[in-house]
User: What shape does this take?
Amino acid sequence: MTALPKHPPAKRLGLAIDLDTCVGCHACATNCKEWNTGGISAPLTDVNAYQAEQRGVWFNRVFTYEVGGEGPQARTVHFPKNCLHCDNAACVTVCPTGASYKRSEDGIVLVDHDKCIGCKLCSWACPYGNREYDEHVGVMKKCTLCVDKIYNQNLPEPDRVPACVAACPSKARHFGDFADPNSTVSKLSRDRGGYDLAPETGYRPTSKYLPPRPGQRGGAAAPTAAEPLPAGTGRFLKWVDRVLTR
Amino acid sequence: MHPAYSVIFFTTASGAGYGLLVLAAIFAVAGLLPATTWLGLVTTGLALGLIGGGLLSSTFHLGHPERAWRAFSQWKTSWLSREGVLAVVTFVPAGLFAVGWVFLGTTTGLFGWMGVAAAVLAVATVISTSMIYASLSTIRQWNNGLVPVAYLVLGLMSGALLLELVARLFGVHRVEIDVVAIALVVVGWLVKTAYWSAIDGTGARITLATATGLGRFGAVRLLEQPHTEANFIMQEMGYTVARRHARSLRAVAQLTLFVVPFAATVAGLWMSGLPALLLAFVAVASLVVGLLTERWLFFAEAKHDAMVYYGR
Assistant: This one.
Protein backbone atom coordinates (compact mmCIF):
# COMPACT_ATOMS: atom_id res chain seq x y z
CA MET A 1 0.00 0.00 0.00
CA THR A 2 1.20 3.50 -0.75
CA ALA A 3 0.02 4.77 2.60
CA LEU A 4 2.89 6.02 4.73
CA PRO A 5 3.82 3.88 7.76
CA LYS A 6 1.30 4.46 10.56
CA HIS A 7 3.98 4.77 13.19
CA PRO A 8 7.30 6.56 12.81
CA PRO A 9 9.85 4.14 11.38
CA ALA A 10 11.93 2.33 14.02
CA LYS A 11 15.03 3.63 12.31
CA ARG A 12 15.28 6.82 10.29
CA LEU A 13 18.19 6.19 7.96
CA GLY A 14 19.53 9.16 6.08
CA LEU A 15 22.50 11.32 5.27
CA ALA A 16 24.07 14.35 6.88
CA ILE A 17 25.64 16.33 4.06
CA ASP A 18 28.34 18.78 5.06
CA LEU A 19 28.30 21.83 2.82
CA ASP A 20 31.40 23.11 4.61
CA THR A 21 33.67 20.36 3.40
CA CYS A 22 32.09 19.39 0.08
CA VAL A 23 34.54 20.26 -2.66
CA GLY A 24 32.17 19.64 -5.57
CA CYS A 25 34.18 16.82 -7.08
CA HIS A 26 31.10 14.78 -8.15
CA ALA A 27 32.69 11.58 -6.81
CA CYS A 28 29.47 10.83 -4.88
CA ALA A 29 27.40 11.14 -8.04
CA THR A 30 29.84 9.01 -10.03
CA ASN A 31 30.13 6.24 -7.48
CA CYS A 32 26.34 6.29 -6.99
CA LYS A 33 25.92 5.73 -10.72
CA GLU A 34 28.55 3.01 -10.67
CA TRP A 35 26.95 1.06 -7.82
CA ASN A 36 23.33 1.52 -8.78
CA THR A 37 23.70 0.71 -12.45
CA GLY A 38 24.67 -2.76 -11.25
CA GLY A 39 22.44 -3.06 -8.19
CA ILE A 40 18.70 -3.49 -7.70
CA SER A 41 18.02 -0.32 -9.72
CA ALA A 42 20.03 -1.51 -12.72
CA PRO A 43 20.32 -0.25 -15.33
CA LEU A 44 20.60 3.50 -14.82
CA THR A 45 20.04 4.14 -18.49
CA ASP A 46 21.92 6.83 -20.38
CA VAL A 47 20.47 8.20 -23.61
CA ASN A 48 22.78 9.67 -26.26
CA ALA A 49 25.65 8.93 -23.91
CA TYR A 50 28.36 9.92 -26.38
CA GLN A 51 26.70 12.68 -28.36
CA ALA A 52 24.71 15.86 -28.01
CA GLU A 53 21.54 15.93 -25.91
CA GLN A 54 22.84 13.31 -23.56
CA ARG A 55 20.70 12.56 -20.56
CA GLY A 56 20.34 9.73 -18.13
CA VAL A 57 19.31 8.49 -14.75
CA TRP A 58 21.37 9.88 -11.90
CA PHE A 59 20.26 9.59 -8.28
CA ASN A 60 22.68 12.20 -7.09
CA ARG A 61 23.42 15.55 -8.70
CA VAL A 62 25.89 18.17 -7.54
CA PHE A 63 24.93 21.82 -7.94
CA THR A 64 27.22 24.77 -7.35
CA TYR A 65 25.85 27.99 -5.93
CA GLU A 66 27.34 31.42 -5.39
CA VAL A 67 26.23 32.75 -2.04
CA GLY A 68 26.49 36.25 -0.58
CA GLY A 69 26.68 38.18 -3.81
CA GLU A 70 29.99 39.57 -5.02
CA GLY A 71 32.87 40.87 -3.01
CA PRO A 72 34.77 39.50 0.00
CA GLN A 73 31.65 37.95 1.58
CA ALA A 74 30.91 35.84 -1.50
CA ARG A 75 31.45 32.14 -1.27
CA THR A 76 31.02 29.17 -3.53
CA VAL A 77 28.95 26.34 -2.07
CA HIS A 78 28.87 22.92 -3.69
CA PHE A 79 25.53 21.31 -3.11
CA PRO A 80 24.95 17.59 -3.69
CA LYS A 81 21.29 16.65 -3.86
CA ASN A 82 19.61 13.25 -3.75
CA CYS A 83 16.47 11.76 -2.21
CA LEU A 84 15.97 12.98 1.36
CA HIS A 85 13.71 10.02 2.33
CA CYS A 86 11.06 12.35 3.75
CA ASP A 87 8.82 11.38 6.66
CA ASN A 88 5.88 13.00 4.89
CA ALA A 89 6.70 11.68 1.43
CA ALA A 90 3.88 12.69 -0.92
CA CYS A 91 5.73 10.90 -3.74
CA VAL A 92 4.59 7.72 -1.99
CA THR A 93 0.96 8.61 -1.33
CA VAL A 94 0.25 9.83 -4.88
CA CYS A 95 1.42 6.53 -6.38
CA PRO A 96 -1.64 4.81 -7.90
CA THR A 97 -0.16 1.32 -8.07
CA GLY A 98 1.56 0.68 -4.76
CA ALA A 99 4.95 0.64 -6.50
CA SER A 100 6.23 3.48 -4.34
CA TYR A 101 6.54 2.84 -0.64
CA LYS A 102 8.25 3.94 2.53
CA ARG A 103 9.68 1.16 4.66
CA SER A 104 8.41 1.04 8.22
CA GLU A 105 11.62 -0.53 9.51
CA ASP A 106 14.09 2.13 8.39
CA GLY A 107 12.15 4.87 6.59
CA ILE A 108 13.80 4.29 3.21
CA VAL A 109 11.59 5.32 0.28
CA LEU A 110 11.73 2.78 -2.54
CA VAL A 111 10.10 1.97 -5.88
CA ASP A 112 9.07 -1.56 -6.83
CA HIS A 113 10.13 -1.48 -10.48
CA ASP A 114 7.90 -4.46 -11.31
CA LYS A 115 4.75 -2.61 -10.24
CA CYS A 116 5.57 0.89 -11.53
CA ILE A 117 3.50 1.95 -14.54
CA GLY A 118 5.73 4.95 -15.29
CA CYS A 119 3.04 7.63 -14.84
CA LYS A 120 5.66 10.04 -13.37
CA LEU A 121 3.19 11.44 -10.85
CA CYS A 122 5.64 10.79 -7.99
CA SER A 123 8.23 12.98 -9.70
CA TRP A 124 5.62 15.75 -9.88
CA ALA A 125 4.94 15.34 -6.16
CA CYS A 126 8.60 15.73 -5.13
CA PRO A 127 9.48 19.38 -4.41
CA TYR A 128 13.18 18.52 -4.47
CA GLY A 129 13.28 17.08 -7.99
CA ASN A 130 14.83 13.87 -6.69
CA ARG A 131 12.97 11.25 -8.67
CA GLU A 132 14.20 10.02 -12.01
CA TYR A 133 12.40 8.47 -14.95
CA ASP A 134 14.18 5.72 -16.87
CA GLU A 135 12.79 6.22 -20.35
CA HIS A 136 14.17 2.93 -21.67
CA VAL A 137 12.83 0.76 -18.87
CA GLY A 138 9.67 2.87 -18.54
CA VAL A 139 9.70 3.09 -14.75
CA MET A 140 10.62 5.59 -12.06
CA LYS A 141 13.88 5.10 -10.23
CA LYS A 142 15.33 6.84 -7.24
CA CYS A 143 18.00 6.87 -4.57
CA THR A 144 17.62 3.68 -2.50
CA LEU A 145 20.15 4.80 0.10
CA CYS A 146 22.01 1.83 -1.40
CA VAL A 147 19.64 -0.55 0.35
CA ASP A 148 21.41 -3.39 -1.49
CA LYS A 149 24.74 -2.31 0.00
CA ILE A 150 24.06 -1.11 3.53
CA TYR A 151 22.52 -4.45 4.56
CA ASN A 152 24.79 -6.62 2.41
CA GLN A 153 26.25 -9.34 4.64
CA ASN A 154 28.78 -10.24 1.94
CA LEU A 155 30.51 -6.92 2.36
CA PRO A 156 32.88 -6.11 5.21
CA GLU A 157 31.07 -4.04 7.83
CA PRO A 158 32.87 -0.73 7.11
CA ASP A 159 31.73 -0.96 3.47
CA ARG A 160 28.05 -1.16 4.40
CA VAL A 161 27.42 2.51 3.70
CA PRO A 162 25.86 4.15 0.64
CA ALA A 163 28.16 4.40 -2.37
CA CYS A 164 28.13 8.22 -2.24
CA VAL A 165 29.35 8.17 1.37
CA ALA A 166 32.07 5.62 0.60
CA ALA A 167 33.36 7.71 -2.30
CA CYS A 168 33.46 11.15 -0.69
CA PRO A 169 37.12 12.23 -0.40
CA SER A 170 36.40 15.12 1.96
CA LYS A 171 34.08 13.28 4.38
CA ALA A 172 31.23 15.59 3.48
CA ARG A 173 28.70 12.78 3.56
CA HIS A 174 27.71 10.88 6.69
CA PHE A 175 25.27 8.00 6.86
CA GLY A 176 23.32 6.87 9.90
CA ASP A 177 20.14 6.62 11.93
CA PHE A 178 18.51 9.93 12.81
CA ALA A 179 16.15 8.14 15.22
CA ASP A 180 19.14 7.30 17.41
CA PRO A 181 20.20 10.47 19.27
CA ASN A 182 23.70 9.03 19.77
CA SER A 183 24.38 8.26 16.12
CA THR A 184 27.08 10.20 14.30
CA VAL A 185 24.56 11.87 12.04
CA SER A 186 22.34 12.92 14.96
CA LYS A 187 25.31 14.36 16.84
CA LEU A 188 26.63 16.14 13.75
CA SER A 189 23.23 17.55 13.02
CA ARG A 190 22.87 18.76 16.61
CA ASP A 191 26.36 20.25 16.85
CA ARG A 192 26.45 21.86 13.45
CA GLY A 193 22.86 23.07 13.15
CA GLY A 194 21.73 20.54 10.56
CA TYR A 195 18.68 21.78 8.69
CA ASP A 196 15.91 20.63 6.33
CA LEU A 197 15.81 21.81 2.74
CA ALA A 198 12.74 23.96 2.02
CA PRO A 199 11.03 23.21 5.36
CA GLU A 200 7.95 25.14 4.17
CA THR A 201 7.03 22.21 1.94
CA GLY A 202 6.07 20.23 5.04
CA TYR A 203 7.66 17.06 3.60
CA ARG A 204 9.91 16.67 6.68
CA PRO A 205 13.08 15.29 5.05
CA THR A 206 15.08 12.74 7.04
CA SER A 207 18.46 13.75 5.61
CA LYS A 208 19.97 16.96 6.91
CA TYR A 209 22.37 19.54 5.51
CA LEU A 210 25.16 20.95 7.65
CA PRO A 211 25.72 24.63 6.84
CA PRO A 212 29.10 26.01 5.78
CA ARG A 213 31.10 27.26 8.79
CA PRO A 214 31.50 31.04 9.04
CA GLY A 215 35.21 30.74 8.25
CA GLN A 216 37.39 33.74 7.48
CA ARG A 217 35.66 36.09 5.16
CA GLY A 218 37.59 39.04 3.78
CA GLY A 219 40.16 38.50 6.57
CA ALA A 220 43.18 37.79 4.44
CA ALA A 221 44.85 41.15 4.04
CA ALA A 222 45.72 42.16 0.53
CA PRO A 223 49.50 42.45 -0.04
CA THR A 224 50.59 45.97 0.76
CA ALA A 225 53.24 47.91 -1.08
CA ALA A 226 56.64 46.88 0.25
CA GLU A 227 58.69 49.40 2.15
CA PRO A 228 61.49 50.83 0.00
CA LEU A 229 64.78 49.03 0.40
CA PRO A 230 67.53 50.88 2.21
CA ALA A 231 70.04 52.52 -0.06
CA GLY A 232 73.05 50.41 -0.93
CA THR A 233 71.25 47.05 -1.07
CA GLY A 234 73.16 44.71 -3.29
CA ARG A 235 71.84 43.35 -6.59
CA PHE A 236 71.42 39.82 -5.16
CA LEU A 237 69.36 41.05 -2.21
CA LYS A 238 67.31 43.23 -4.57
CA TRP A 239 66.60 40.13 -6.66
CA VAL A 240 65.67 38.11 -3.55
CA ASP A 241 63.38 40.91 -2.44
CA ARG A 242 61.74 41.08 -5.85
CA VAL A 243 61.12 37.32 -5.94
CA LEU A 244 59.76 37.12 -2.44
CA THR A 245 57.40 40.08 -2.75
CA ARG A 246 55.89 38.73 -5.95
CA MET B 1 5.22 21.34 -16.72
CA HIS B 2 5.69 19.48 -19.96
CA PRO B 3 2.31 19.27 -21.71
CA ALA B 4 1.94 15.64 -22.81
CA TYR B 5 -0.52 15.52 -25.72
CA SER B 6 -2.01 12.23 -24.53
CA VAL B 7 -2.90 13.80 -21.18
CA ILE B 8 -4.28 16.95 -22.81
CA PHE B 9 -6.52 14.83 -25.02
CA PHE B 10 -7.48 12.62 -22.08
CA THR B 11 -8.56 15.42 -19.75
CA THR B 12 -10.44 17.40 -22.41
CA ALA B 13 -12.12 14.45 -24.15
CA SER B 14 -13.12 12.56 -21.03
CA GLY B 15 -14.22 15.83 -19.39
CA ALA B 16 -16.49 16.58 -22.35
CA GLY B 17 -17.75 12.98 -22.39
CA TYR B 18 -18.61 13.04 -18.69
CA GLY B 19 -20.23 16.47 -19.10
CA LEU B 20 -22.38 15.15 -21.95
CA LEU B 21 -23.26 12.07 -19.91
CA VAL B 22 -24.36 14.20 -16.95
CA LEU B 23 -26.52 16.58 -19.00
CA ALA B 24 -27.96 13.91 -21.30
CA ALA B 25 -28.94 11.86 -18.24
CA ILE B 26 -30.54 14.86 -16.52
CA PHE B 27 -32.46 15.95 -19.63
CA ALA B 28 -33.52 12.42 -20.56
CA VAL B 29 -34.58 11.44 -17.04
CA ALA B 30 -36.50 14.72 -16.73
CA GLY B 31 -38.33 13.82 -19.91
CA LEU B 32 -36.91 16.74 -21.86
CA LEU B 33 -35.32 14.46 -24.46
CA PRO B 34 -37.30 11.70 -26.20
CA ALA B 35 -36.26 8.10 -25.47
CA THR B 36 -35.68 7.28 -29.11
CA THR B 37 -33.12 4.78 -30.38
CA TRP B 38 -30.95 6.89 -32.67
CA LEU B 39 -30.86 9.91 -30.37
CA GLY B 40 -29.88 7.61 -27.50
CA LEU B 41 -27.27 5.82 -29.58
CA VAL B 42 -25.59 9.02 -30.77
CA THR B 43 -25.76 10.79 -27.40
CA THR B 44 -24.61 7.97 -25.15
CA GLY B 45 -22.25 6.65 -27.86
CA LEU B 46 -20.59 10.05 -28.18
CA ALA B 47 -20.35 10.45 -24.40
CA LEU B 48 -18.97 6.97 -23.74
CA GLY B 49 -16.74 7.16 -26.83
CA LEU B 50 -15.16 10.41 -25.64
CA ILE B 51 -14.73 8.98 -22.13
CA GLY B 52 -13.29 5.68 -23.36
CA GLY B 53 -11.04 7.32 -25.93
CA GLY B 54 -9.78 9.77 -23.35
CA LEU B 55 -9.06 7.06 -20.81
CA LEU B 56 -7.30 4.97 -23.44
CA SER B 57 -5.23 7.98 -24.46
CA SER B 58 -4.22 8.57 -20.85
CA THR B 59 -2.42 5.23 -20.86
CA PHE B 60 -0.25 6.27 -23.83
CA HIS B 61 2.03 8.45 -21.70
CA LEU B 62 2.72 5.58 -19.31
CA GLY B 63 6.01 3.73 -19.36
CA HIS B 64 4.10 0.47 -18.92
CA PRO B 65 0.50 0.77 -20.21
CA GLU B 66 0.03 -3.01 -19.81
CA ARG B 67 0.30 -2.56 -16.06
CA ALA B 68 -2.37 0.17 -15.95
CA TRP B 69 -4.73 -2.18 -14.09
CA ARG B 70 -2.50 -1.84 -11.06
CA ALA B 71 -3.60 1.78 -10.78
CA PHE B 72 -6.98 0.65 -9.38
CA SER B 73 -5.39 -0.53 -6.13
CA GLN B 74 -4.35 2.59 -4.20
CA TRP B 75 -7.62 4.52 -3.98
CA LYS B 76 -7.08 5.10 -0.27
CA THR B 77 -4.31 7.64 -0.85
CA SER B 78 -3.96 8.40 -4.55
CA TRP B 79 -6.28 10.66 -6.56
CA LEU B 80 -5.00 9.05 -9.75
CA SER B 81 -6.12 5.68 -8.43
CA ARG B 82 -9.48 7.08 -7.30
CA GLU B 83 -9.98 8.56 -10.73
CA GLY B 84 -9.29 5.19 -12.34
CA VAL B 85 -11.68 3.34 -10.04
CA LEU B 86 -14.47 5.91 -10.45
CA ALA B 87 -14.01 5.97 -14.23
CA VAL B 88 -14.52 2.22 -14.45
CA VAL B 89 -17.39 2.15 -11.94
CA THR B 90 -19.18 4.92 -13.87
CA PHE B 91 -19.31 2.68 -16.95
CA VAL B 92 -21.72 0.30 -15.16
CA PRO B 93 -24.72 2.63 -14.58
CA ALA B 94 -23.81 4.62 -17.71
CA GLY B 95 -23.85 1.46 -19.80
CA LEU B 96 -27.18 0.32 -18.33
CA PHE B 97 -28.64 3.78 -18.87
CA ALA B 98 -27.50 3.62 -22.51
CA VAL B 99 -28.99 0.14 -22.94
CA GLY B 100 -32.33 1.34 -21.55
CA TRP B 101 -32.38 4.37 -23.83
CA VAL B 102 -31.13 2.69 -27.02
CA PHE B 103 -32.58 -0.80 -26.88
CA LEU B 104 -35.56 -0.57 -24.55
CA GLY B 105 -36.71 2.95 -25.36
CA THR B 106 -36.90 4.00 -21.75
CA THR B 107 -35.06 6.57 -19.64
CA THR B 108 -37.28 6.30 -16.58
CA GLY B 109 -37.73 3.89 -13.70
CA LEU B 110 -34.71 1.71 -13.02
CA PHE B 111 -32.94 3.06 -16.10
CA GLY B 112 -33.67 6.59 -14.95
CA TRP B 113 -31.98 5.82 -11.65
CA MET B 114 -29.04 4.41 -13.60
CA GLY B 115 -28.86 7.74 -15.41
CA VAL B 116 -28.83 9.62 -12.12
CA ALA B 117 -26.15 7.31 -10.70
CA ALA B 118 -24.06 7.74 -13.87
CA ALA B 119 -24.37 11.52 -13.59
CA VAL B 120 -23.29 11.56 -9.93
CA LEU B 121 -20.34 9.22 -10.60
CA ALA B 122 -19.34 11.23 -13.68
CA VAL B 123 -19.11 14.40 -11.58
CA ALA B 124 -17.04 12.51 -8.98
CA THR B 125 -14.73 11.20 -11.71
CA VAL B 126 -14.09 14.64 -13.19
CA ILE B 127 -13.37 16.04 -9.73
CA SER B 128 -10.94 13.15 -9.11
CA THR B 129 -9.17 13.89 -12.38
CA SER B 130 -8.74 17.51 -11.36
CA MET B 131 -7.56 16.53 -7.88
CA ILE B 132 -4.62 14.62 -9.41
CA TYR B 133 -3.30 18.09 -10.24
CA ALA B 134 -4.91 20.18 -7.50
CA SER B 135 -3.51 17.96 -4.73
CA LEU B 136 0.13 18.58 -5.72
CA SER B 137 1.53 21.16 -3.32
CA THR B 138 4.68 21.32 -5.45
CA ILE B 139 2.99 23.21 -8.29
CA ARG B 140 1.31 26.40 -7.16
CA GLN B 141 -0.60 26.92 -10.44
CA TRP B 142 -2.35 23.58 -9.82
CA ASN B 143 -2.60 23.56 -6.03
CA ASN B 144 -5.59 25.90 -6.21
CA GLY B 145 -9.24 25.44 -5.24
CA LEU B 146 -10.37 26.80 -8.60
CA VAL B 147 -8.76 23.89 -10.48
CA PRO B 148 -11.46 21.29 -9.61
CA VAL B 149 -14.15 23.92 -10.25
CA ALA B 150 -12.70 24.73 -13.65
CA TYR B 151 -12.37 21.06 -14.65
CA LEU B 152 -15.97 20.38 -13.64
CA VAL B 153 -17.47 23.50 -15.21
CA LEU B 154 -15.51 23.14 -18.46
CA GLY B 155 -16.53 19.47 -18.66
CA LEU B 156 -20.19 20.30 -18.16
CA MET B 157 -19.91 23.25 -20.55
CA SER B 158 -18.42 21.01 -23.24
CA GLY B 159 -21.19 18.49 -22.63
CA ALA B 160 -23.85 21.20 -22.94
CA LEU B 161 -22.48 22.45 -26.27
CA LEU B 162 -22.27 18.86 -27.57
CA LEU B 163 -25.83 18.16 -26.42
CA GLU B 164 -26.94 21.34 -28.16
CA LEU B 165 -25.40 20.07 -31.42
CA VAL B 166 -26.89 16.58 -31.10
CA ALA B 167 -30.32 17.96 -30.18
CA ARG B 168 -30.25 20.33 -33.18
CA LEU B 169 -29.17 17.44 -35.40
CA PHE B 170 -32.15 15.31 -34.34
CA GLY B 171 -34.60 18.19 -34.28
CA VAL B 172 -35.35 17.64 -30.60
CA HIS B 173 -33.85 20.91 -29.49
CA ARG B 174 -35.27 22.71 -26.44
CA VAL B 175 -34.61 26.17 -25.11
CA GLU B 176 -33.63 24.68 -21.75
CA ILE B 177 -30.48 23.26 -23.38
CA ASP B 178 -29.59 26.75 -24.67
CA VAL B 179 -30.08 28.25 -21.25
CA VAL B 180 -27.92 25.64 -19.54
CA ALA B 181 -25.20 25.94 -22.21
CA ILE B 182 -25.11 29.75 -22.05
CA ALA B 183 -25.07 29.72 -18.25
CA LEU B 184 -22.21 27.20 -18.17
CA VAL B 185 -20.19 29.18 -20.72
CA VAL B 186 -20.57 32.31 -18.59
CA VAL B 187 -19.65 30.46 -15.38
CA GLY B 188 -16.70 28.81 -17.12
CA TRP B 189 -15.50 32.20 -18.33
CA LEU B 190 -15.72 33.65 -14.82
CA VAL B 191 -13.94 30.64 -13.27
CA LYS B 192 -11.05 30.66 -15.74
CA THR B 193 -10.66 34.44 -15.46
CA ALA B 194 -10.58 34.13 -11.67
CA TYR B 195 -8.10 31.24 -11.97
CA TRP B 196 -5.73 33.16 -14.21
CA SER B 197 -5.78 36.18 -11.97
CA ALA B 198 -5.26 33.94 -8.92
CA ILE B 199 -2.14 32.26 -10.34
CA ASP B 200 -0.77 35.60 -11.50
CA GLY B 201 -1.21 37.00 -8.01
CA THR B 202 0.77 34.39 -6.09
CA GLY B 203 4.53 34.13 -5.95
CA ALA B 204 6.79 31.11 -5.86
CA ARG B 205 6.25 28.93 -2.82
CA ILE B 206 9.90 28.16 -2.23
CA THR B 207 12.93 30.21 -3.18
CA LEU B 208 16.51 29.19 -3.88
CA ALA B 209 17.37 30.69 -0.47
CA THR B 210 15.05 28.32 1.44
CA ALA B 211 15.45 25.40 -0.98
CA THR B 212 19.20 25.34 -0.32
CA GLY B 213 19.01 26.78 3.20
CA LEU B 214 21.83 29.11 2.21
CA GLY B 215 19.80 32.31 2.32
CA ARG B 216 21.31 33.07 5.74
CA PHE B 217 24.60 33.91 4.00
CA GLY B 218 23.07 36.33 1.54
CA ALA B 219 21.77 36.13 -1.99
CA VAL B 220 21.99 32.67 -3.59
CA ARG B 221 22.67 32.30 -7.29
CA LEU B 222 23.20 29.20 -9.42
CA LEU B 223 26.79 29.12 -10.54
CA GLU B 224 26.86 25.74 -12.23
CA GLN B 225 24.12 23.20 -12.76
CA PRO B 226 25.08 19.56 -12.29
CA HIS B 227 25.50 18.89 -16.01
CA THR B 228 25.59 20.75 -19.28
CA GLU B 229 22.52 19.20 -20.91
CA ALA B 230 18.88 19.03 -19.83
CA ASN B 231 17.93 16.09 -17.63
CA PHE B 232 14.56 14.44 -17.03
CA ILE B 233 13.57 16.88 -14.28
CA MET B 234 14.38 19.88 -16.48
CA GLN B 235 12.54 18.46 -19.47
CA GLU B 236 9.48 17.37 -17.49
CA MET B 237 9.20 20.40 -15.24
CA GLY B 238 11.17 23.18 -16.87
CA TYR B 239 8.83 23.83 -19.77
CA THR B 240 9.07 27.55 -20.49
CA VAL B 241 7.67 28.00 -23.99
CA ALA B 242 4.17 28.91 -22.87
CA ARG B 243 5.16 31.45 -20.26
CA ARG B 244 6.55 33.64 -23.01
CA HIS B 245 3.29 33.52 -24.96
CA ALA B 246 0.89 33.11 -22.06
CA ARG B 247 -0.90 36.42 -22.66
CA SER B 248 -1.70 35.84 -26.30
CA LEU B 249 -2.58 32.18 -25.74
CA ARG B 250 -4.96 33.14 -22.94
CA ALA B 251 -6.64 35.56 -25.35
CA VAL B 252 -6.98 32.77 -27.93
CA ALA B 253 -8.38 30.44 -25.27
CA GLN B 254 -10.93 32.99 -24.08
CA LEU B 255 -12.04 33.80 -27.61
CA THR B 256 -12.45 30.20 -28.75
CA LEU B 257 -13.57 28.64 -25.49
CA PHE B 258 -16.04 31.26 -24.33
CA VAL B 259 -16.67 34.18 -26.71
CA VAL B 260 -17.45 32.21 -29.88
CA PRO B 261 -19.57 29.46 -28.20
CA PHE B 262 -21.43 32.15 -26.22
CA ALA B 263 -22.17 34.27 -29.29
CA ALA B 264 -23.12 31.22 -31.40
CA THR B 265 -25.44 29.79 -28.75
CA VAL B 266 -27.10 33.13 -28.03
CA ALA B 267 -27.60 33.76 -31.75
CA GLY B 268 -29.09 30.26 -32.02
CA LEU B 269 -31.90 31.31 -29.66
CA TRP B 270 -33.56 33.14 -32.54
CA MET B 271 -32.92 30.51 -35.18
CA SER B 272 -33.97 27.03 -36.08
CA GLY B 273 -33.23 24.43 -38.71
CA LEU B 274 -30.00 24.47 -40.67
CA PRO B 275 -28.70 27.90 -39.54
CA ALA B 276 -29.13 26.90 -35.89
CA LEU B 277 -27.42 23.56 -36.57
CA LEU B 278 -24.51 25.35 -38.24
CA LEU B 279 -24.18 27.71 -35.27
CA ALA B 280 -24.15 24.76 -32.86
CA PHE B 281 -21.45 23.19 -35.00
CA VAL B 282 -19.40 26.41 -34.97
CA ALA B 283 -19.72 26.50 -31.18
CA VAL B 284 -18.41 22.92 -30.86
CA ALA B 285 -15.59 23.44 -33.39
CA SER B 286 -14.47 26.54 -31.50
CA LEU B 287 -14.83 24.68 -28.22
CA VAL B 288 -12.39 22.01 -29.40
CA VAL B 289 -9.73 24.61 -30.23
CA GLY B 290 -10.43 26.46 -26.98
CA LEU B 291 -10.29 23.38 -24.79
CA LEU B 292 -7.00 22.19 -26.28
CA THR B 293 -5.47 25.66 -25.90
CA GLU B 294 -6.74 26.05 -22.33
CA ARG B 295 -5.52 22.61 -21.28
CA TRP B 296 -2.17 23.06 -22.99
CA LEU B 297 -1.77 26.33 -21.07
CA PHE B 298 -2.81 24.61 -17.84
CA PHE B 299 0.22 22.36 -18.13
CA ALA B 300 2.66 24.70 -19.81
CA GLU B 301 2.04 27.61 -17.43
CA ALA B 302 2.56 25.44 -14.37
CA LYS B 303 5.94 25.84 -12.72
CA HIS B 304 7.31 23.12 -10.50
CA ASP B 305 9.04 24.07 -7.23
CA ALA B 306 12.01 21.80 -7.99
CA MET B 307 13.05 24.12 -10.81
CA VAL B 308 14.36 26.67 -8.30
CA TYR B 309 17.39 24.41 -7.80
CA TYR B 310 18.15 24.96 -11.48
CA GLY B 311 17.95 28.72 -11.04
CA ARG B 312 14.59 29.00 -12.80
Q: What stands out?
A: DSSP finds ten helices and one strand in chain B. Chain B has a mean pLDDT of 95. Strands of chain B lie at 220-224. Chain B touches chain A through 60 residues (CB under 8 Å).
